[in-house]
């Protein structure tokens, strides 16, 4: 019988309301406690989730629970470092919402704490576990596209006043950058699909003049060109100041075929019509709502790996740090007006 892990939630906002059902649905997690900045009703929580849940407002008391095994950090980005380090120091495995942190120095602080404690980790780059990108990666791995020499994955999602995140996302101390705030999902997906070591990033950014977005303390559109060490190239745009439906644009071009969102063409299947795309039967990434994110699949992978005593595949802290290293290089390049930045300049410590 699979082990069931006692799990505590940090933060009880929008993300937590999607994480908790997904955790419970894995069959290997029982949410037993919640740390919140505001008092919560334990009886109400227990009735809602069908299991005894104890709430805390004091972090020390929360982490001191002897039977707490896993912590799910869903709070604000500026609190991620504090809670991730506390979780590691308390010997708790943890799940961490993106971004890991708002500075590379804080990312390294978390990395050091995890290595010292030896705890297991999961970062919510859940797109890697989606049906769409599981299918895409399978096609790449099976040679359907050949050698992918160019790829672009772009994030289009207007984060305006109609969106709960907007109230704090406008501030640099809250959202950090367009990439850290949201576009990191696209950059991470591109890096998974291209699967190679990045040498250099060149990025530029811009900002909408509409009042909803002009108030942001950082540029809300960033376009990054990625140069891989083997010469291949990629592009990722993070656009959080648009008026349009959510769009996770994906275009991969290889020596044997191409893929465009949910469509493809390949020379590996005889007699396909080159004048028309073939359709993939997938559920696309088409919503920014956390209720639509594939958390359950990701969390199932985490708990299965945890039970084996292994790092989870695809989205451990180590995996996510590689993507964040490229993201911070892109933000550094954009801040310098498009000066190319070597990824090695973002040093591991």
Percent of residues in beta strands?
Answer: 15-25%
Mean pLDDT over the residues: 96
Q: Describe the strand arrangement of the main beta sheet, using strand numbers.
A: 14-13-12-11-7-10-9-8-15
Which CATH architecture of the largest domain? 2-Layer Sandwich
User: What is the third-level CATH name, the topology of the largest domain?
Assistant: Dihydrodipicolinate Reductase, domain 2
Key traits:
349 residues, alpha/beta, Rossmann fold, Dihydrodipicolinate Reductase, domain 2, 2 domains, nine-stranded mixed β-sheet, six-stranded parallel β-sheet, 15 strands, 34% helix, 23% strand, globular
What is the topological layout?
Blueprint: E1 5-10, H1 14-25, E2 29-35, H2 42-49, E3 54-56, H3 59-63, E4 70-73, H4 80-89, E5 93-96, H5 104-117, E6 121-123, H6 131-141, E7 148-156, H7 166-169, H8 178-194, E8 198-206, H9 211-214, E9 221-228, E10 233-239, E11 247-254, E12 257-260, E13 263-266, E14 278-279, H10 295-308, H11 317-335, E15 341-342
Parallel strand pairs: 1-2, 1-4, 2-3, 4-5, 5-6, 7-10
Antiparallel strand pairs: 7-11, 8-9, 8-15, 9-10, 11-12, 12-13, 13-14
Helix pairs in contact: 1-10, 4-5, 8-11
